[in-house]
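Troubleshooting: if your tokenizer reports a length mismatch, compare your output against this known-good record of 418 residues.
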Amino acid sequence: MTTHSPFGDSTLAFVRDGYAFILRRSERDHTDVFTTRLLLMPFVCLRGEAAAEVFYDSERFERRGAAPPRAQKTLLGEGGVQGLDDGAHQVRKGMFMSLMTPARLRDLANLTTAQWHAAAVKWEMQPQVILLDEVQELLCRAVCRWAGVPLRAAEVHLRTADFAAMIDSAGAVGVRHWRGRLGRARAERWAAGLITQVRARTLTPDEETALSVIAHHRDGSGALLDEHTAAVELLNVLRPTVAVALYVVFTALALHDFPEAARSLSEGRRAARENFVQEVRRFYPFFPFAAAKVRRDFEWRGQQFLRGQRTLLDLYGTNHDRRTWGDPETFRPERFQKRNGNAYNFIPQGGGDHFQGHRCAGEWMTIELMQGALRFLTEELTYTVPPQNLRVNLRRFPARPASRLVLRDVRRSGLTAG
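Known-good structure output:
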């Protein structure tokens, strides 16, 4: 069934509904596909498992030119892997996946745990901490060290602020947008300088680190990436890792909001932590949509897809699809005990195959970091959550608790930093 917006342009509805825009329209009209206009530009909107499988068909959709220019100037950068297709994408994506081996992920997890311990020492001496800000900084420290990126103590705050500004600019207008543009421009200059130093051999990170791998990577033509593109791809390792702080804050919020579910973690079982983390990723809003352009004309469920049409896949709505999840607005980690592992109905960081498609290369890293944070928050810290505004506004991109989650009375559970 194909439906059209009765008002021609749906920008006001999009602003009103935010993350839930496609979901609400789809449920209202009983369809997984509809056309509309946003800022007077035509879009096809998709939702659900079957739609996701179509969306990630590289014969039907392409990513070149799909990302909004505003997002490229802030969140994504220009020339990165997200905008590549076919062989060029396969080669570039292979570079990223080479960094995601179990051994390298364990290294990052260990470095991050050390940063959690060091941060906790500091937090004990403070009357309160804003968890989002603190986790962004500790993840910045950890991922830079893991990636082979030198980071002086004096510049930690600046780099963290630039990454945070890029992340917070997603979907933003006004000051937040321009702060993101400034942060990206400054970060790209810094990252390009690191690439130059590695190639000149004045900086020699270990060969398995992201900085070394990206600086020496050659695309399908056999040429090194130009310095700007290499800088964008280095930031595509660092920035998304810092963005995991949003998921960590949602994890802490879930512990606070759903104490019954939190009690299932009392035995410290890894399986329970995995289920809890996956439900956080399903339940809370992270990235709302994925964008692509129609590669060739085709028809699906009565909708004509024309070459060049801009298309949005609803990530949030697919993760809240009643047909898959039954009671999607209930936080229930045990639902993941029997999940079938479908690559298209659970898509908080995209769908399809990690190696062949456009599913986020850092998804396994995200899960590892979230599990480490969950273990630390439940087993190695005590704290109180004072009264504050914890509302998650679905109209804000990216969404987060309004207060950024304030903690007080932070104490380590008899641990020492290290």
